[in-house]
């Protein structure tokens, strides 16, 4: 009788590396390691060899960076989505796509369970399990951090050493890092305490610390069609290429480093350091183009809706009815978000340079101080009489 199969969301990092032998000890199942390529830089042959050497019977690596950029990063940029008005959701955007691929492979392999290496305190356990449920509500999920006796990353390192599993984490550098096309996150170790100052040059991977950035500014041109970036510096690129190109350019200038305290889905606060160079420039340029092509009311609505969408995505609800409805609304607002945006990058700053659009709502005649055929200066008197009426009534009644 063949063994049951468990599909493991595998990264090759500390947590998932020790999960393979632990699963084999406690579930007596065949372990299928799945590492979803969402744009992280890896030696995939080495990752596969490590998974097999650790006890996995099979390894899958679906390469989905293009899908990630087009169907997840770009919709978030169109919405100007920032969790708590700050975080660009790099990890949260990748998890629903990874979950989708895990379920596809689990069905292909007739697996009875999907396992992830997320801790019981983190956001990703929610995101993975929400995503899995969206495609297979009956799939069994195994979460070792909620079951095993390993209590800390230090314990995990000891377990890996005991089992002879090669790892890069040490007790001195115990950071938990997540990389994809959009960003790299850093947590754990001395980063955890907000009281600790950290040396960014020792932590950052794709972004220069400010001390190492060029002394010359660089102007970048981004072309948008219906809110989606289609070219950088005049070169037509597919979405994944836009993001990777901007990562290189913006990372050189120290753009997109975020060190902040966030509120996790399950309630506690935590500190993380994020590198999102390309995404930061892309979102800034997109917002500037919208300032020229959207009405005041639409911009106001999008700011509110963007916060709601960011909250849904952060909490793992990418496939929810609410998120799908919001995205339909966002798509409608992007019809005329067309044009070119130039920004100047310098020492961690994104400075405005120019915006042009065939759909711009700026009218030089109307907006200027001179006379034009759409607005009569005398009309302002009646408008002011009407808009100040409530204030005059309150004053008459002694209320102000």
What does this structure look like?
This protein is of the alpha/beta class and 400 residues long. It folds into two domains: 5-71 and 92-172, Rossmann fold (3-Layer(aba) Sandwich), CATH 3.40.50.620; 179-356, Argininosuccinate synthetase, chain A, domain 2 (Alpha-Beta Complex). Helices cover 42% and strands 18% of the residues. The chain has helices at 14-27, 44-54, 65-78, 90-109, 124-135, 153-163, 200-203, 239-252, 277-293, 296-314, 321-333, 364-367, 379-387, 389-396, and strands spanning 5-9, 30-34, 58-60, 113-115, 140-142, 176-179, 184-187, 218-225, 228-232, 235-236, 257-263, 269-275, 339-346, 349-356. α3 (65-78) crosses α4, α3 (65-78) crosses α8 (239-252) and α10 packs antiparallel against α11. The N and C termini lie far apart (84 Å). The model has no long low-confidence stretch (mean pLDDT 93). Its EC number is 6.3.4.5. Keywords: Amino-acid biosynthesis, Arginine biosynthesis, ATP-binding, Cytoplasm, Ligase, Nucleotide-binding. Belongs to the argininosuccinate synthase family. Type 1 subfamily. One of its GO terms (molecular function) is argininosuccinate synthase activity.
């Amino acid at each position: 009788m063949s063994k049951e199969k468990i599909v493991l969301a595998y990264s090759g990092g500390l947590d998932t590396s020790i999960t393979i032998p632990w699963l084999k000890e406690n579930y007596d199942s065949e372990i299928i390691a799945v590492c979803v390529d969402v744009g992280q830089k890896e030696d995939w042959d080495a990752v596969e060899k490590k998974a097999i050497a650790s006890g996995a019977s099979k390894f899958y690596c679906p390469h989905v960076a293009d899908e990630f950029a087009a169907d997840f990063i770009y919709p978030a940029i169109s919405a100007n989505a920032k969790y708590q008005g700050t975080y660009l959701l790099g990890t949260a955007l990748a998890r629903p796509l990874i979950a989708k691929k895990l379920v596809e492979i689990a069905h292909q392999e007739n697996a009875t369970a999907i396992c992830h290496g997320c801790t019981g305190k983190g956001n990703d356990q929610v995101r993975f399990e929400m995503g899995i449920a969206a495609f297979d509500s009956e799939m069994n999920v195994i979460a070792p951090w909620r079951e095993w006796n390993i209590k800390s990353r230090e314990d995990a390192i000891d377990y890996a050493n005991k089992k002879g599993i090669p790892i890069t984490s040490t007790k001195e550098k115990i950071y938990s890092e997540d990389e994809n096309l959009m960003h790299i996150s850093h947590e754990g170790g001395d980063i955890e305490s907000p009281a600790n100052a950290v040396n960014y040059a020792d932590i950052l991977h794709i972004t220069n610390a400010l001390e190492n950035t060029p002394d010359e500014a660089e102007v970048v041109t981004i072309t948008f069609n219906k809110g989606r970036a289609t070219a950088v510096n005049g070169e037509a690129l597919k979405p994944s290429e836009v993001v990777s190109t901007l990562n290189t350019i913006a990372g050189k200038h120290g753009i997109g480093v975020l060190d902040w305290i966030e509120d996790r889905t399950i309630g506690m606060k935590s500190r993380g350091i994020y590198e999102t160079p390309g995404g930061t420039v892309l979102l800034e340029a997109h917002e500037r183009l919208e300032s020229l092509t959207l009405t005041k009311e639409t911009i106001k609505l999008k700011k509110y809706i963007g916060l709601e969408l960011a909250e849904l995505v952060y909490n793992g609800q990418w496939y929810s009815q609410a998120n799908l409805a919001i995205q339909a609304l966002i798509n409608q607002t992007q019809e005329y978000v067309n044009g070119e945006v130039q920004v100047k990058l310098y020492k961690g700053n994104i400075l405005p340079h120019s915006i042009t659009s065939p759909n711009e709502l700026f009218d030089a005649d109307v907006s200027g101080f001179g006379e034009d055929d759409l607005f009569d200066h005398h009309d302002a008197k009646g408008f002011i009489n009407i808009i100040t009426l409530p204030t005059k009534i309150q004053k008459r009644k002694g209320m102000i």
